[in-house]
Amino acid sequence: MHKSLIAVALYICASAFNFSNAQFADFKTTEKVLGKMIKNRSSNFVVSGDGQRIAYVVGTGRYDAEMGPSESWEKYHLVVDGKVGKPYRRISEVQFSPDSQRVGYISTTAVIIDGKEDQAFGESATDAVNQQIRELYGLRFSADSKSYAYATSSINAEGPAFIVLNGIKLKSYARVHNPLFSPDGKHIAYSAQIANPRRELVILDNKEGPTFDHLIEDDNLKFSPDSSKLTYLAWPKHNKPAQYIMVNNGREHVVLLGGEKWRTFSPDSKHLAYAFETEHKKKTILVDQKIGQLFNAWGLSAPIFSPDSQRIAFVVTTHNPSLRKGQVYTVLDGKSGKVYQELLLQQPIFSADSQHFAYGAFNGTSWMTVVDGIEGTHFNSVRDLQFNPTKEGLAFIAQVGDKFCVSYRGTNGTLFDQVVDLQFSDDGNTLAYAALNSKDKKWRVIINGKESPPYDFILAKDAYDHKTSTPQSQSSLRFISNNQLQFLATRGDRLISVKLQIP
């Protein structure tokens, strides 16, 4: 490892202090310096689930300005909590386990778990001239953080492909797809292909299901929230697609009518819904195999259930939006809403008590929110709709001209150049978000309208990262109690952990 990298990676002495500036007197602000940022960062920040650990990729060696950030440098290192890892030609799929205690990522030659290379595939991932011969992909941690799994296959389609579970190689197939853990972390499933004759199947906990002509590869497998059922869409030989449910730990299969792969379980796992096209080209939503209202439409969205599992909603699109301006509308509990030119890509949402329903809509000239059928104020755009978890009221980010603000209960907040990562405290009394002010080019967290101290950058979801020219994909903002918020930020070359005490 480069000595210079080791030098800059050493933690400076951790320090904590409270701001006494009257501008920030509303909060008791505690900052702890975690260390210096390493130069040549080539990736967004990856944040642990508890918001207190951070990882990112840096480059060393020769630099090619014509290549993208993930290809420009000769070697790459993963920096985790300020410690610089081993150099590799490429690093991808960096992630923390759900409990924030473990970290894993994929290089060209190995999967690295907790700093150790896992090479359970029994052969080098590269040949003598350092050309990759095996592909490594689909790294996952289980929900309980006790297990990890990934897939590996031959680059030239010759040789075996298989899943590696906790360092143990599972059965070989011609091809395998990304593994999926159940929500409780006790089950693992994946799809695979047999070569001669060419057939495809689903494997659940090492039990093979029936074989098919074809299985949709991406996002096809779906567990129920209680982990008792696994569903997938498949094509039996010379037949139309059918939905299959594996139950009783894979020992029993239930065959359902075919439809879209975007299936939805109710939160209580008792109901399954998905879009379906009848023989007469009518579209409908099947709920527990019961055909609902029929539509002459281009498409239906994946249905969504309310938190209490008693209500269901979906979006109807009348025409192919790539060919002409279509018309879209929501259907809630069988009743169609007002027709609009466009709806927000964010799914419609229910309130926590399942009593209220909201979405964003475009009428051809402006955007608005629609709550229980009632239109709100018109804006240039709206996004990130959220209901207060305990009280009535919808919050969202609105665009006014070229500025953004948070609108809550009909009141608009201060305008900023960027507004991201809207969050409520569990008791619903506090609303927080991150914002950028172009006047001083500083980021702040806004809590119930009051500003935190300024920072060069805040690790907030969707905050634009000028270093990588992409939005930050993960958030470090966390309510650790109803009156305390923490987040990670940068000031100069220092990475800082910040805690704000809310009076």
Give me the secondary-structure topology.
Elements: H1 3-9, E1 16-18, E2 28-36, E3 46-47, E4 54-63, E5 73-80, E6 83-84, E7 91-96, E8 103-107, E9 111-113, E10 116-118, E11 134-141, E12 148-154, E13 162-165, E14 168-169, E15 175-176, E16 180-181, E17 188-194, E18 199-204, E19 207-208, E20 214-215, E21 222-223, E22 230-235, E23 242-247, E24 252-257, E25 264-265, E26 272-277, E27 283-287, E28 290-291, E29 299-300, E30 304-305, E31 312-317, E32 328-332, E33 335-336, E34 342-343, E35 349-350, E36 357-362, E37 367-371, E38 374-375, E39 381-387, E40 394-400, E41 403-408, E42 411-412, E43 418-424, E44 431-437, E45 442-447, E46 450-451, E47 457-458, E48 464-465, E49 470-471, E50 478-481, E51 484-491, E52 494-501
Summary keywords:
single chain, 503 residues, mainly beta, five-stranded antiparallel β-sheet, 52 strands
Structural class: mainly beta
Mean pLDDT: 85
Number of separate helices: 1
Share of helix, binned: under 10%
Structural commentary:
- Helices cover 1% and strands 46% of the residues.
- The chain is mainly beta and 503 residues long.
- The strands form twelve sheets. Strands 1, 2, 47, 50, 51 and 52 form a six-stranded antiparallel sheet that branches. Strands 15, 16, 17, 18 and 19 form a five-stranded antiparallel sheet that branches.
- Strand 22 (230-235) and strand 23 (242-247) form a beta hairpin.
